[in-house]
Amino acid sequence: MQIKDLGEFAVIDLLKETVTAQRSGPDHGAEFGYRLLVDNGDDAAAWRTGNATELFTTDTMVEGVHFNRKTTPWTDLGWKSLASNISDIAAMGGHPMYALVTLGLPPETDVDHVKELYAGMMQISNTYGVAIVGGDMVRSPVVFITVSLTGVHPDNPMLRTAARAGDEIGVTGYVGSSGAGLRLLLEDTPAPSAAAEYLSESHRRPHPATEQGRLLSKIGVETAMDISDGLADDLSKLCQASGLSARIYADRVPVHPLVKQTFPDDWLDLALNGGEDYQLLFTAQSRLMSEVLPQLPEGSALIGEITEGRAGEVVIVGSDGRETAAAPGGWDHYR
Q1: For 19-37, what is the mean pLDDT?
Q2: Is 0.85 surpassed by the pTM of this model?
Q3: Which residue of 49, 78, 199, 226 shows the fewest CB atoms closer than 10 Å?
């Protein structure tokens, strides 16, 4: 059966029933004074807010730009379509809350594939406490998914603009694994089964660092952003926002052993430019950094420092001490 056989509104009803039957519940923000007033099925969703900071983000995935059918099965596509938004909320130190989903689908799309897409969405939304509360559907020549997500923070969220010269730079886990997974899938790179499983899973099912983000914010970290376009590129954006520069030490960048094993010549490039790791990049004074790092998971590391200099410039220091400016290599839609 195809979408054109059911029609738009019948498919919307199917998805609404899927969401309301499977989600973990829309009231997980009650402790902050949030109460859902209008759920799926109306022109808009509405919620009452209490004394907290509301967060809101949106992102789109387009077939042929962000994914293709060879590397991303429908269920994994559902997971990833929400992961990028959840990661944005994590970067602020917030709790992800309510999502609106817009689907652009060709009329020939198989309804079973749409069910698989939503199965992945429900898996990640229930894992992270997100409630899907509505959305839209349009005819499109290619598949695209737009997710809008709200979040809440009990106080002041972490920002890109708060870095200071002398801050140390940390990351909450391994980087380069998703980029390595994509290359493995696209190029059919030979790899042992353990490496192939880890790398493909890292690309298809990234895990946003929400707990780490809340921990950082609670301890007192003021500056963070998520690593979506590549470590070097995202650090450059953070520095640009703060009007500063940065130095990264190549031998401190945390890269999983299976990435190094599979791509012995390219692991640093994958770590710096691979993207879609959805770890958090953050800065803090030395005293605070020494308090934070022991509380973070395996793979977290101190990788460099914020410096005075041209806004947005990132320098990579090699193991031999040689310094090179990071070349643009992260994800850019129009590069």
Answers
A1: 81
A2: yes
A3: 49
Contact between 301 and 254 under an 8 Å Cβ cutoff? The reply is yes
Q: What CATH number should be reported for the domain whose range is 3-153?
A: 3.30.1330.10
Q: Residue 42 pLDDT > 80, yes or no?
A: no
The four Cα atoms 19, 57, 84, 292 give a dihedral, to 10 degrees, of -120
Parse the chain into domains and list their residue ranges.
Answer: 3-153, 168-325
Residue 183 in tokens: 């290359």
- Topology of domain 168-325, CATH: Phosphoribosyl-aminoimidazole Synthetase; Chain A, domain 2 (3.90.650)
The tokens for 127 are: 């894992």
CB 68 within 8 A of CB 88: no
pLDDT of 334 higher than 60: no
Q: What is the 3-state secondary structure (H, E, C) of the chain?
A: CEHHHHCHHHHHHHHHHHHHHHCCCCCCCHHHCCEEEECCCCCCCEEECCCCEEEEEEEEEEECCCECCCCCCHHHHHHHHHHHHHHHHHHCCCEEEEEEEEEEECCCCEHHHHHHHHHHHHHHHHHHCCEEEEEEEEECCCCEEEEEEEEEECCCCCECCCCCCCCEEEECCCCCHHHHHHHHHHHCCCCCHHHHHHHHHHHHCCCCCHHHHHHHHHHCCCEEEECCCCHHHHHHHHHHHHCCEEEEEHHHCCCCHHHHHHCCCCHHHHHHHCCCCCCEEEEECHHHHHHHHHHCCCCCEEEEEEECCCCCCEEEECCCCCEEECCCCCCCCCC
Angstrom distance (rounded) from CA 115 to CA 120: 9
Record the tokens describing residue 223, joined without a space. 């500056």
257-313 per-position pLDDT tens digit: 999 999 999 999 999 999 999 999 999 999 999 999 999 999 999 999 999 999 999
